[in-house]
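Most newcomers find our protein records easier to grasp once they have seen one. A record pairs a protein's sequence with a compact description of its fold. An example says more than a description, so a record of this kind follows:
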Amino acid sequence: MNKKLFLGLLISAIAIGILLYQFDIREFKTLQDKWNPIYILPMIFSNLWAMGLFATRWYFLLEKRLSFQKSLLVSFLGVGANMVLPARGGDILRIYYCKTQSDQISYPYVVSKLFIEKVIDLTIVLFIGAISFMLLGLGEGKSRPEAMFLSGIVVLGLILGLILVRFANSFLINMGSKLLSLIKKEELFQTKLAPHIKDLGEFLTFKKLAIPLMISVPTWTLGYAITYLLQSHLIGIHLGYTETLFIVFCGAMGVALPSAPSGVGVFHASIISGFLLLGLGTQNGFLYATAVHLMQFFVLSGCALIAYLMWMGGFQGIKKQASLTEDLVEEKKSFGSEKG
């Protein structure tokens, strides 16, 4: 864990160093004149709208075993915590919260749902990237079909892997058990990995996946994309909708792997790469990435703080109620002994 954290921080530090070395502060001062604060409130509401869709999908992924109110709270808590915790610490917090809020939710169950969420997001993001890449006419010559082909291969591999988990679940568990038995780790597999594979296979049906999939598309195309679009107008860099979709793809790929809090550094680098492909320049890309990162940090981490206080308030209330119940039981026992 410490090695992963160190590697993530190192990658982000290198990316930030390269970006700052290439950035001209005079250009930043010039772009400051384009700032249009009228877009701040719409952008905040768009962020909240996107998080509402995100929470709704989580509610259905957990098969309503957690109330919608708690799904909304934990979504803000997890995503906001990812803005300040390294190595996707917010996702770990989300797993812990869900487990403690319902007796119907186990750690393997919620981890398998988190995995499905990530697979759905990755698949949709790759489709968004491929389609926007094609519509914008980027990468003339050989690079264009190669990029499309690579995205298609990744998506196809994910789909085939999920089909295998769904229809060959027992086979995968048996094979995994046999392979791990060769290195005397069969018990570890049966207790740690097999439950995840089983839960994942049971969930991969059209009936259970249909609603999360239908929610995921507008989450990206009408939630995150509209937020990114408004943020471009906020700083005077007027992106079109298709260009915004491509930048959403670049940003999502930049933070796909766990790194520093909120992917700082690698997120900026991926956004700048997208701006360069669009022919919009490094300076605009750096300013845009910085604006997006700061606005999302304040909005999402602020909401996460509120969610955390609500969680702690409810948690303390439960502890107090449990303590009162124990005191009542003790008083009844004492009264019964005195009466006897």
Summary: The radius of gyration is 24 Å. Residues 2-324 form one domain. The CA atoms of residues 46 and 278 lie 24 Å apart.
